[in-house]
Design brief:
The relative contact order is 0.08. By secondary structure, the protein is α/β, with parallel strands linked by helices. The protein is 44% helix and 14% strand. α16 (407-421) crosses α17 (426-433) and α17 (426-433) packs across α18. It contains 18 helices and 16 strands.
Amino acid sequence: MNLRQATILIVDDDKDVLTAVRLLLKPEVKNVTVSATPENLRKLLSDNTFDILLLDMNFNSSYNSGNEGLFWLHQVKEWNPQLAVIMITAYADIDLAVKCLKEGAADFVVKPWKNEPLIQMLKDILQKRDALHKQTAKTHSDLPDIVGESEIMQNLFRKLEKIAPTDANVLILGENGTGKDLIAQAICQLSLRRDKPFVKVDVGALTQTLFESELFGHKKGAFTDAREDRTGLIEAAHEGTLFLDEIGNIALPQQAKLLTVLQNRQVTRLGTNVPIPVDIRLISATNLPFSDLSDERIFRKDLIYRINTVEITVPPLRERGNDIILLAEYFLRRYEKKYLKQQLHLSETAKKKLSAYTYPGNVRELQYAVERAVIMADSHTLNGEDIVFSPIEQKTETTPSLQTHNLEELEREAIVRVIEKHQGNISRAAKELGLTRAALYRRLEKYDM
C-alpha cells in the first residue's frame, strides 16, 4: 500500500497539533481522522478501519500522569493488535517513548517534528507492514495453490495459524470453487499431524450402499463381492487427518452412524462386532450455508456440534479484490510452462475484464479462463477479448425451449438443470425432483452422468 491509499487517525488533546498534522497529511493520504480525546478510541476503531494511529503520550486525564500514552497503547493493542501506532512525545518523555516501542508501538515522533521525516516514517511503516503481509502470503503459498494478499485472506491465514496446531475439529464453509480442499490440506500441513496420513473422502459421491463399506471397512464375506478384508477410510486415517468433503450431502441415516463413530472414537467393520479404536483429527467441508445445516430435516444438530468445534469460511473470489489479478498471474505462469508458451502477460484491458467479473465459479472459473486464454494465445499479450469465462456458469432465468418430446431426454434435461441449480448438491436436487438420493443416483448411472 502506498501512502495515498492510507487512512490515518490522530489522537492528541492539543488542537494546534491536530490542525498541523491534518493540514500536512490531507494531500498525502486517502483520509485523516482526528480526535482530541483518547476516550473515543474504542468507538473510532470499531467503526472504522485505520492503517496508522498517531497517539499522544500525555493527556489531561486521570490515567497515571506521564503514562497515559502507555496505557492507551495497551488498550489499542488489545482492541486491534495489527494497527501500527506512532507515539507523539516531547523530548522529556523519550525514555517513556522507548518503553512504548518495547510494548508494541511502531515508532515515535518528537514534537516539534519536521514534516518530511514524519511523512517518510509513515511510508516506511506501510512498507514494513506490506512486506510482513507478503511474507505471510509467501509462507502460505508454499502450501498447494494458496495465493492471497487481500486483507480477508490474511485474516484467514492468521486464523489457520491458530487453529492448525490444535486437534480441534474444523468445518470449512464456502461456495463451490473457493478452494476448501486446499484449506483442509493447509490445516493438515500446519498441524502436529503433518507427517501422518491425510485421507480425503468425497462423501457426497458415496451411495448409501457404499458409505459404510468405504468409511468403516468390512470383513471378508460381509456381503456379496466382499472377497477380502478391507480397511475403511476412517481407520486408514488413524493418528492423522480425515477430511470429509461435501459432508452436507450425507443422508440422515448415515449421519447417525458417522456420529456414533466420532463420539466413541472407534469404528466397527461390516461383518464383525469388534470395535477398532481410531485417533483422528476431523476436517469437514460443505458448500451449504449454515442456515441449511441448522435445519434438522437436512442435518443432525448433534453432528454439527461434533464436527464444528471451529468453523472457517473461505471467501468467494468476488470479495478478494486484487487477489483476482494475483491469482490470474499465478495461473498464467503455471500454464505458460505447461503449454510451452513464453513471457505471456496480461494487458490492462484483460486485467480490467478479470477484475470486473463476479466469478460465480470462483477460483476454479478464473483458472479455467486463464488456461483457455494461454492455449488460444496468438501473441505474448493477453487482451480483454482473449478472456472468455466458462459457459457453465452463464445461467439464464428463462426456461430453455424443449428440443425433444422423448421422455428419457426430458428427464435427463430436468436432472441436469436441477443439479446445476443446486450447484451439485445431490440431496437438495433429489428433494426438488421428488426422488430419494438413491433413486437420483440410479438415474445418474442410467444416463452416464
